[in-house]
Amino acid sequence: MPQRTKEMTFASLHHHTTFSYGDGYALPSAHVRRAEEIGLTALAATEHGNISSHVQLESAAKKAGIKPLFGVELYTGELGENATQRKNHLTVLAENQEGYGNLLRLVSSTYSEGFHYEPTADGAMLDRYKDGLVVLSGCQGSALFTAAVGGKHVAEGDASFARARRVASQFKRTLGERYYIEVQAFPELEKTNQANPMLARIAEELNIPLVVTFDCHYTIPEEKEMQKILKD
């Protein structure tokens, strides 16, 4: 987790604990303790496809005097006759009580209506439950990121600024001011270096706010190896 400075207060808005099964390490309480150590005032839980960590996050955060933020990293894709195993990721946060109710309904629907290999949301679900939610464009597995530089089911040769701009425009039409473009600070990853300038330009051209996240999956650098083991 990055550290708060006098110039900036950072909240980890894209954050995984052990409840991101196979892709996160340590209980919410450990993440809260680390957040407290480095001076964060708020911490989100955005597990893959589920909200199972929210109760533990809230309990630990209240004891530490940290504001808990409740969200999910959705699996998104087409459903129905065009359903596919290929999914993208989307970061969704509850803005208020209405939003939390809609977050619960949205996640429930991904299981009851949209389960196809993973609990899946499509555009219609997002539109139905968008009130009170804040939607970030997502990580390197998102529809926007892959449209810009490739990845998942988009070949690099098919990716482009124009394709990514169209994706962002579609999300903005559905979500309006609830949609934010998410950029991540991973200078060691070449695709991130390629994508971030494009995403910033799209944000400026379409008047969409930018949000910086770090897609945290553990509490300290030494736990990186454990997270790799879990993924394998």
Summarize the structure in words.
The protein contains eight helices and eight strands, in the order αβαββαββαβααβαβα. By secondary structure, it is an alpha/beta fold. Strands 1, 2, 3, 4, 5, 6, 7 and 8 form an eight-stranded mixed sheet that branches. Helix 1 runs parallel beside helix 2 and helix 5 (143-149) runs antiparallel to helix 6 (161-175). The protein is globular and about 45 Å long.
Give a quick set of tags describing it:
232 residues, alpha/beta, 8-stranded mixed sheet, 8 helices, 18% strand, globular, disordered N terminus
Short summary of the structure?
This protein is of the alpha/beta class. The protein has eight helices and eight strands, in the order αβαββαββαβααβαβα.
Indicate the low-confidence ranges by residue numbers.
1-6
What is the number of helical segments per DSSP (H or I, 4+ residues)?
A: 8
Question: What is the CA-based Rg, rounded?
Answer: 17 Å
Please identify the structural class as seen in this structure. Answer: alpha/beta
Arithmetic mean pLDDT: 93
